[in-house]
Amino acid sequence: MTEKLADFVVNLRYEEIPSSVIETQKKSVLDALGITYGASGLGDGCREMVKVAAECAAGGTGEASVIGWGLRLPAVWAAFANASMAHSLDFGDTQMHAVVHSNASTFPAALAAAEVLGNVSGKQLLTALVAGSETACRIALGVHEDLEARGFYMPPVYTSFGATAAAGKLMGLGREQMVDAFSLNLCQTTCSAELMNNSETAVRSIREAFAAKNALLSARMAENGVRGFADPLQGKLGFYHAYAGKPGDEENALSGLGSRFEAGELYFKLWPSCAGTHPAIRILKEMAAVHDMDWNRIENIHVVTSVRNRMLMEPLNIRRRPESSIVAKFSIPYTGALALLNGTVTLADFEESRLKDPRVLELASRFTYEVNPSWEKQDGMNTEVMVRMEDGAVYRKLYTENGALQEEPSWGEMEEKYFACAAHAAEPKTKEELVSIADLVRTLEQLPEISGWTALL
Known about the structure:
Blueprint: H1 2-11, H2 19-42, H3 46-57, E1 64-66, E2 71-73, H4 75-86, H5 106-117, H6 122-140, H7 155-171, H8 175-186, H9 203-206, H10 208-223, H11 239-244, H12 250-254, H13 278-290, E3 298-305, H14 316-320, H15 325-329, H16 332-342, H17 358-364, E4 367-371, E5 383-389, E6 394-399, H18 411-422, H19 431-442, H20 451-454
Parallel strand pairs: 3-4
Antiparallel strand pairs: 1-2, 3-5, 5-6
Helix pairs in contact: 1-8, 2-4, 2-6, 2-18, 3-4, 4-5, 4-10, 5-6, 5-7, 5-10, 6-7, 7-8, 7-10, 8-10, 13-16, 16-17, 18-19
């Protein structure tokens, strides 16, 4: 399996990627830029992570851009800083089948690698990004179990392999070197699921920083001849054994590899919260629009969730009264209350002052839940909501759609989100600068060399 994935990454050509996948990937780039700009000003722990990156760089060569800060650092530390922001707002794209944010550290790692290499075309960057996103998805599809129960928080672990693939692709690694890079990445990568039990930690916000940094280091070590080991994924004591305690589902992971692109099926978020909260948000918005529901007269809001998304209700006291924006973004009670009260969920709803809104907290306190044990990974988005009114009226709706929650947004919708996020940057760009950056993303494949574009970031 490791060799097949390495072969795919090394041999993938731009011409082999369907145009629809390229369009999706370009939208992902625009989304990532807007979100990173926004997180530079709003993200939990991001300011501190950029400071750490600058200190660790110790005056090293400014090889790559730190988005939103007007700063350049050595590539490894630029990737670390950008990736700390890439997922911080929990507003980035999600691959729903694989249950992974496949570009969260892949884009920061690839961007840093491209900047330090120089002479990288738009087509080369897009090819590397698709290869990396696909790698993260495919490795995740080899797991069916709930690995959080084993103590592991998997999204940044999967993306670390995608980021390694993207960086290695740009560096021109051969198959053996790519296998080495995957194994060197495995030696550096983990993330504890204990972060879900703590309302004060910033790890959930900045976690992708570790994945992007490790990816750049792994690819560079492999490029310089550091040998890894032959089968980091399916080896007797490799990735799947370590995390899942059993071999990965190779057939599911590799089915259609090279002909069907999981990287082309991304869900772009309308609301800046965990995708697992979105079915409940959607249901409650629809209920509020159809029924005359005075929130003061709601007795109880009962949610039936999947095994995977029980984390969005547990611990219940923390989810009802989140004390940080990242915890609020992973709370069905908080985001569901917003949907009922305001008809939507926005970035402003996660500012510190808004987390204390007494109306939202009062309504969130009326949420209860249960877990349907038959809804496992493949049914992870299944959600049922029952609203009981004081007069005895009951409104119930079940969401069972797997995969995407919506049609892919248009470029206009993506740009609207990009501008809204970028307005919160630590060092805001002018409207003209933001327009120029977005216009170049739309035609990224036409750029013979991307340094002019990256210089604007």
